[in-house]
Structures are given as structure tokens and as C-alpha cells.
Amino acid sequence: MSKFIFSSPQKYIQGRDVINELGSYVTELGDSAFLVSDKVVWELIGDKVIASLDSAKTSFHYEKFNGEASKKEIQRLAKKARAEGTTVVVGLGGGKTLDTVKAVADELKQPVVIVPTVASTDAPCSALSVIYTDDGVFDSYRFYTKNPELVLVDTYVCAQAPVRLFASGIADGLATFVEAQAVARTNSKSMVNGIPTIAGMAVAEACERTLLRYGYSAYMAVSEKLVTPAVEAVVEANTLLSGLGFENGGLAAAHAIHNGFTAVSGDIHHLTHGEKVAYGTLTQMVLERRDDDEIARYIRFYRSIKMPTTLKEIHLENVSREGLLNIGELANSDNDTLKNLNPNLSIEEVADALLAVDAFSRTVSD
Questions:
Q1: What is the pLDDT of residue 2?
Q2: Whole-number Cα distances in Å, 116 to 95, 242, 295
Q3: Domain spans in the chain, listed from the N-terminal domain onward
Q4: What is the mean pLDDT of residues 342-346?
Q5: Of 111, 120, 157, 344, which sees the most CB atoms within 10 A?
Q6: Active-site positions?
Q7: Which residues are CB-contacts of 100 (< 8 A; sequence separation ≥ 6)?
Q8: Is 1 a residue whose pLDDT tops 90?
């Protein structure tokens, strides 16, 4: 029997300086918080977090994230949280930190609060994590029975992060509707294992519309560390609209190709998630024979926010044919979502599309 499924966080809060209210929301979920972030994030916002939790009379333990969303790191943190006797898990930071924290909360069967400090991915709102090996190679998706209890996004904090990360979130978000359309067209399942709902598709479309309408002006504002109405709109699109859109609309080739990039070595691994997804999105558009004008529009927009559109810009200008085939093979694995675009695609077709994006992009004028 066909099922239509829509999933979302219990509560989403966004605005300037809302980090100062974190304690009052955390205490609704538990009286002892296990906090996880990397060192850089903790140095930036740790004092505000502590002050907010102290004001709410919520006890806490802080543990530093080691940098990789791996099974080993998840087990390490879960063991530590059990020993501390915490009752709610709070993640602060970027995508890999937040994916790890969701897994830790799942291990403990406790509520989870997600506090993104960059608007760089759509990970915060979802009921899944992307799991990697300790060496950073894509391993699998881990799915949960619920979304986070709370996602709290301080737009001032996000605007202080490097603008490259903000642009990466835009690029990640622009994949949302492209992939959701493919899933709907092939009657595939969304990331919550149901047929995409009307609501899910509408959110995905609103994400694309918002990013193309306000993305460039928001990018310029964040380059000056400013919070404007356009920045608020794009932070919501990067985080909430893209998160709900990809989860309820589904993933296809753009993210599968991103994951496929982990099959090759080199400087590509210095790129952000969104930078790799940008190239994956263009590759999907080639594979599904989108109009040249539409692909060119995306290329020009990506360039305006300094996202890569050529193999040289993703440090693969010297990649071998074998390397391209390895990317295609990993993207086409049973654990990934390339089949949602076309279950009959070959790894050779993926390799050719990766090259075709590069060739076409170099002919597109600004």
C-alpha cells in the first residue's frame, strides 16, 4: 500500500540572539544537558550557552566533538553521556557535529536539541544522520523514529561565520527541489520512506524560490556579517525549508554524487558539503536532460556566490577515467539515492555527466 509521510521537528525557533534563550527551552526537555561541539564553536558561543543554562538552573556537561560523524565517535560520546547521567542531548555547530549528536540521542533514547552555528547544511531538522568512516569516507545513512525536539537557530551567530559556509548552505538548499522533483517523477520514496507529500514538494519549491530570489543579496550581507530580512529568509531556506524539503521530498543524484566524491583522494576533501553538492546538482541536471538555459542559470548563480562549477574548481581537473568511474560506482551503491533519479543509470553515464558539466560550464558566460 502506498503511504504519504511528512515528518518535521517538534519546534523550530529562529532569530537574532535566540541563543540567549536556549536554557529556557532545554529545561522543558530535561534537567541535565549533555553538550557537544567542536573547540572553535565552544570558544565562540560557550559563554552564552553556559549563562543561559545557568539562568534556567539546568545542569550540564560539555564534551568536545572529535571531528568525524563516525560510529566510533558516536559510541564514545554515548558512553560519556551515560556516565554523566544526562537527560537531554544538545548539539552546537555544523553538519557533522549535529549528525553525531542526533545519533547519540538515539542511542540514549533521549530528547535532542540542535543548535546550528552556521547555515551551511540542511542537516539540523532531519530525522537522519550521514555516517562516515573514521577516515571520512561515506558509510551510510542512519534513520531515526523522530525528528529533533527543538532546532534553535541564532541568525546573528550564523552571520558571523565565514560567508563561504553560508554560500555552501545555499548550494545545498538548491539541490532540494531538483532532487525532490526526480523522486516524485520516478515514484520513489522520500527519506522518511513514503511517497512525497504535497506539503513536502511545496516546501522544496519554496526553498528554491527563496534562494534564487534572495540568495545573492543575503550572501553579500553575510560577507559583511550583517543580519537583514534577506539573510533571515535564506537562513530559513537553508535550514528549515531545505531540511523539510529533502526529508519529505527525497534525495536523488546530487547528494549521491557528493557521497561518490569520497571515493577519490586529493584536495576535493577540502571542499565543503555544499560545494560538492553544487557540482552534484549540475551533474544531476545533465543526467535528466534539463534545458541548457536552466543549467546555465544555476551555473551563473553558483558563480555569483563563489560555488564551484568546473572540475578544476573542485580540484578534480586531473582526475583519471578510473577515478570518475569510482565516483559513479560509489554514488550508485545500494546504500545511496542515485536510483531515485534513474534505477538503470550506469557508472559510465555518471562519469560522462561529470565531464559534461565541466565542458558546458566553461562555455557559459557571466
A1: 80
A2: 8, 14, 31
A3: 11-159, 252-366
A4: 96
A5: 120
A6: 172, 255, 258, 273
A7: 36, 65, 69, 73, 74, 77, 91, 129
A8: no
CATH 3.40.50.1970 applies to domain 11-159: yes
By C-alpha distance, which of 46, 136, 43, 143 is closest to 90? 46
Contact 97, 65 (CB under 8 A): yes
- Placement of cell 566553461 in the chain: 362
User: Which residues, at least 6 apart from 21, have a Cβ–Cβ distance to it below 8 Å?
Assistant: 13, 52, 152
59, β-bridge pairs: 32
Bridge partners (DSSP) listed for residue 230? none
Q: Does domain 252-366 have CATH number 1.20.1090.10?
A: yes
Please report, as a single letter, which amino acid is at residue 330: L
Closest CA to 48 of 16, 13, 28, 23: 23
pLDDT tens digit string along 245-268? 999 999 999 999 999 999 999 999
Name the amino acid, one letter, at 51.
A
pLDDT tens digit sequence for 279-325: 999 999 999 999 999 999 999 999 999 999 999 999 999 999 999 99
SS (H, E, C) the chain: CCCECCCCCCEEEEECCHHHHHHHHHCCCCCEEEEEECHHHHHHHHHHHHHHHHHCCCEEEEEECCCCCEHHHHHHHHHHHHHHCCCEEEEEECHHHHHHHHHHHHHHCCCEEEEECCCCCCCCCCCEEEEECCCCCEEEEEECCCCCCEEEEEHHHHHHCCHHHHHHHHHHHHHHHHHHHHHHHCCCCCCCCCECCHHHHHHHHHHHHHHHHHHHHHHHHHHCCCCCHHHHHHHHHHHHHHHHHHHHHCCCHHHHHHHHHHHCCCHHHHCCHHHHHHHHHHHHHHHCCCCHHHHHHHHHHHHHCCCCCCCHHHCCCCCCHHHHHHHHHHHCCCCCCHHHCCCCCCHHHHHHHHHHHHHHHCCCCC
CA dist., res. 26 & res. 3, Å (int): 34
CA angle (172, 240, 306) in 5-degree steps: 30
The tens digit of pLDDT for each residue in 34-48 reads: 999 999 999 999 999
